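During the practical work, I selected for study one protein's amino acid sequence and its backbone structure tokens, as given directly below:
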Amino acid sequence: MKYKIIENFLKQDSFDYIQSIINGNYFQWLLLENPASSIHHTTYKIKHPKNTYALYHKLMERGVPVSPFTSIILTPILNSLKEEHKYKEVGTNRAKINCFFRQDENQQLGYHKDIEDRTDVKTLILYLDTNDGYTEFMTGERVPTVKNSALIFPAHELHQTVTQTDTIFRKNININFKGE
């Protein structure tokens, strides 16, 4: 499995600003009753964890901004991809922010592909905190949740969220993008 981890993905002031927006009083969340059966992707090898809920906030769907916060949050991330990490033209297909609740034990939320039918799209997960949750690939490889680290991998690769036990929330920004 070919993936890339970039530590300190955003400059600290940009990261702190995004955090202040997401953690602010005017940021609205939607409840997702079972993240493992999200309509956004097909899941594979699902275990159907009990009492698993998550919050999410859509920023972009099918290339169209759907939140008043889209530009404020995505601009520094996309600029970092281009300027700091040498990606050329970056086109965003879908972007959302996830917030998972603490569980008594790490819960596997089901393997899925962010994009089912395209090999030219990548997923970027920007972790907004540090905890014992992780992203796991079907190969068994695990990527820990580390604040301001970005994980980039082909969007058609099977992966899953594994929830945390040591913090109340586990938040990340998930972006599906085209870019070289």
Observations:
- The two ends are 18 Å apart (CA to CA).
